[in-house]
Each structure stands twice: as structure tokens, then as C-alpha cells.
Amino acid sequence: MSESGDPRPIGVFDSGLGGLTAVRELFRVLPGESVAYFGDTARVPYGSKSRETVTRFSLEIARFLMRQDIKCLLVACNTASSYALETLKRRFEIPVVGVIDPAAGVAVTGGGRGAPVAGGSPPPRIGVIGTQATVASGAYARALAQLAPGTTVVSRACPLFVPLIEEGWLDHPVLRQVAEEYLGGLRAERLDGLILGCTHYPLIAPLLQDIIGPGVRLIDSGAEAALATAGLLRRRGLLAGADQAPQHHFYLSDERLDFERVARAFLGRELPPTAIVDQTDLPWFERSIPH
Amino acid sequence: MSESGDPRPIGVFDSGLGGLTAVRELFRVLPGESVAYFGDTARVPYGSKSRETVTRFSLEIARFLMRQDIKCLLVACNTASSYALETLKRRFEIPVVGVIDPAAGVAVTGGGRGAPVAGGSPPPRIGVIGTQATVASGAYARALAQLAPGTTVVSRACPLFVPLIEEGWLDHPVLRQVAEEYLGGLRAERLDGLILGCTHYPLIAPLLQDIIGPGVRLIDSGAEAALATAGLLRRRGLLAGADQAPQHHFYLSDERLDFERVARAFLGRELPPTAIVDQTDLPWFERSIPH
Fold first, then answer.
1. Which domains does chain B have, with CATH numbers?
2. Smallest CA–CA distance from A90 into chain B, residue
């Protein structure tokens, strides 16, 4: 690291474009940092796939981002964080941050942007929503139990949220009906917080809040992971210097017709000047197709 | 081919398990034939991905099935048939059958199991529903225009049907609401036939018929492709002999927790005695993950 800070980019990956909600928070809290983002649009979604497959995909992507000389890796995908985080941490020397621990920490301690839980209060009651894989992995339940033994965890897989959000039906009555079906039963659980365990869900946060009730704090796992990444870079003296303009690179494993629309929805603004690279040099793209 | 017929299996592939609706028809019309089925559950779905990516995946799978010594290849996936069929036909010597032409043929000629269109009647009006990729490719529109110039084609992408069917919400009011949203506008089109351009859709055929109206003939693309495959094997003398018991093999690129339930829904019965092989020897599964 030079005196002018560490100019290397923060690596971020997700199964698709949902991880841009974490990038949005990185841009907000660390406007001087460069980001190298990878979205695995050729193999999205991960949420219905196995631990072995998600781990293999995650390792391939991490190796690709390592070749872009990243200084840390933010695993924005909840499914990849649930299944592959320990493997990634063992395999790479740079710091690796997942979405599970930061969100779980905020849920039980009121850290981050939330109000702290009062000492002596009963153990918290936390809801977790996510993909089938994230819920089946039990990763949030384990993290919550470790951070605050006695925490009650109520998990619910919501596999239709992602396709509905990707279809852009954010204001469609069908989305409300599906959300009511998934979450209506959670109202009786008297939750303190609800972890949005998928980076797509912040786009429907107002609807979720409406259904779960105003007393339940929503925790945005991607945003909390971005804040945790910022804290880690500060503590380790890895922030970029103020004298350099950030340079962002966005890589996708497959082109998407509606990329601009979806990216804008997740990022909350136009993409900054950037390189969109389809068909990257991941190993499976090196093979050519003879015609 | 020996006097006792050609015992080699019929190769079938799909992006996932939907292609089992075509296998169901193969089992019905060719009970003596062996089937080697590949479902790309690690990279499903194909319907939102690009031509290049879908073609690459299709070639990898076709090469895998060729190593299982198949005598013909049925491309049960509508997206793969739309994007990759010509490439597959050029690359392999065995007969390759897609779902587009058989379904289009039945739609405009009344061939197969339908009633023939009377001579001198006005050109048919055909609806096509499928994934975003199948509709965007224009494959059905081209096939229909070639078979019956003057045919009116009305296409509609229905990306939420697959996740709803996979979630098992077949009798849920949300499915009817989504179907009404997608297809309600087609009622005014006075269609003669509606091509179900995705192997998932036969599972919701009664609902689709109810919404589109009783006068519109539904055409099951997977079943029609199976019938076309049977006809091709008969014409070329490639049927298996009556003295051999069929042996089926089912390969998946990733395990699925709910495989049995979903497979039963598509196949209409329990899977026959078979080898379910997860993590097959496709190229990308040969790499090991160091832990």
C-alpha cells in the first residue's frame, strides 16, 4: 500500500444483478473506492441449486476476480454466502466478507444503522426470508444462535420473489398476493426484525414492511455487508487515497437484453462509466463453439 | 443395426426437468425404446439467456449424450431448439429433432393428433407462448411462415409460468391471475391454435384452455416432438427390437432437493428403474474443488 492509499478495487460478486444493491451502498459510503463486480448471469439463479455446485461456481468467480487484483471480496449473494463462504475464506488470502454475519449481527445487537437492543430485554425473535438454498442451509440460524444464544429464528423460503422482481411486477397486485402468502403467517410471530436474505428484496421493502407490520425492523443484508466491508477496509488501512478517481468494472457471464433496466433498478441510478464485459474469461468461456 | 432392431437409446435433453413431458409421450408411443435424458439443473433456466450461451450449453450436453451412444437426439427444450438446433444438426451425424417444427407443423396443417385444416380456408391464426428467449428468437414465427405463408402469429413471453409451476402452485389463484394477465389479451385475436412453446406448460393446460377459450386448440410442443421422433425412427428403420427390455438413464448436472416430486409431475408417474447421475462428466464437472 502506497502513501496515497490502496487503489485496488473491491471485488463483489452475485449470481446475477441483485448484488448491485450492495454496490449501491458501497458507492454511498465509500465514494472513492473502485469496484469490480461479477454477475453470473449465465448460470443464475443459485437459490435452487446444491451446495457443491454453488461452491464450485463461487470459486471460479473468485479466481476470476483475483486476477483483477482485488483487495477484498464481498460475496453479495446470500446463497453463495450460505454455502461457500468458509471455502472462499480458506482458499484466498485477501479478506472475504459475506452477507450472513453482518445482517445477523445487526439483527441481534441493533448495530449498524439500527437502534441497539436494550440490555436485559428478552432474546430477540428474528425472521429470515431468502431462497430455498439460503433457508435450507441454516446459515442465518447458526449465525444468530452464535451471536445471541436463545434467539428465536423463523425462516421462510420465498422463491417467487426473484422472478416477480426480475419481471418488473413491483406494483402488481400479484406480488402483494404472493408476499401475503409467504409472510402473512409471520405476523403472529411477534418478530423484532426481518432479515432480507436475498439482494433482490430491498426493491420490495415497502411492501414487505406493510405486510409484516410497522414494528418489525427490516435488515438489508447486502447493505449491511457493504457497511461491514467499509469498516474492515478502514480498520486495516486498505482504503483508497483521496487523490485517485475510482474506476469501476462490471463483468457478466452472459449478456441480458434488459440489463440496463434491471441494473438501474438495483443500483438506484445509471451505471457509472464502466466496462460491461460479456462472455468473460472464466474457464468455461475459453472453449470455443465450432460451427 | 442388427435384425433385432437398434437398441441404442433416444437422447433427450432439456434445461431442467420440463423435458420429461416429452419423455412421457415417448414412453407412451414407443414403450420398447430406451431413453437417455439429460437435465441441466445446474444452469437452468435457459429462457432468459443469450443465443451464444444457450448454444454452448446445448453443444456440451449433446457431446455428453453422444458418448452414451444415442441413435437420435430430441431437443426437448424450446429455448435450445430456438437458438441451437441448426448448430446441433450441422455438428452431429445422428438425426436431431427439435420442438419447433413439429409443433408448427401441427398448428398449421392439423397434422398429428389434430383435425386437418380444410382446404380453401383462410390462413390460420396461431398464438405462441414461451420463454423470453423462445419468443425473442422468432423461431416459431419463421417456421410457421415457411410452412404456411400468410399465417398470423401472435407471440407472448410468459416468464412467470415456469417458477410458478416449479413452486407447485398449480391450483393457486395467483397462477390464474398471472395467466389472465399474460393471455387475456389473446382472446380477441380469434386464434385457431395456441402453441405451448415450453415443456412446463402442459401441466397447466386446463387453466390455459379455460382462459383462452374452448375453440382454440392447444398444441403441446414436447409431445409433438416425441411423435415426430417416433415417426423418424420408424421411417429410418431405427426402432428397437421387441426382444429387448428398455433401459433408461437420467442424468442431471446438479442434484435437486425436490427432484422426485417435480419429476413425477412432469412424467405423470414414478420414474422407471433408472440411474440418476448428479454431477456428470460434462467438462465443467471434471474440475475438482480444492477445499
1. 10-98+223-285 (3.40.50.1860), 101-221 (3.40.50.1860)
2. B291
Contact A160 B159 (CB under 8 A): no
Q: Provide the residue-wise pLDDT of chain B in tens; the chain has 291 residues.
A: 445 799 999 999 999 999 999 999 999 999 999 999 999 988 899 998 999 889 989 998 999 999 999 999 999 999 999 999 999 999 999 999 999 999 999 999 864 444 445 556 788 999 999 999 999 999 999 999 999 999 999 999 999 999 999 899 999 999 999 999 999 999 999 999 999 999 999 999 999 999 999 999 999 999 999 999 999 999 999 999 888 889 998 888 887 767 788 888 899 888 776 666 655 455 444 332 232
Using alpha carbons only, what angle is made at residue B216 by residues B210 and B220, rounded to the nearest 5 degrees?
A: 85
Q: What is the pTM of this model?
A: 0.90
List the grid coordinates of A248: 469501476
SS (H, E, C) B138-189: CHHHHHHHHHCCCCEEEEEECCCHHHHHHCCCCCCHHHHHHHHHHHHHHHHH
CA of B177 vs chain A CAs: smallest distance (Å):
7
Residues on chain A touching B256 (C-beta within 8 angstroms): 48, 50
Q: How far is A208 from chain B (nearest CA, A)?
A: 18
- Is residue B158 flagged as an active site residue? no
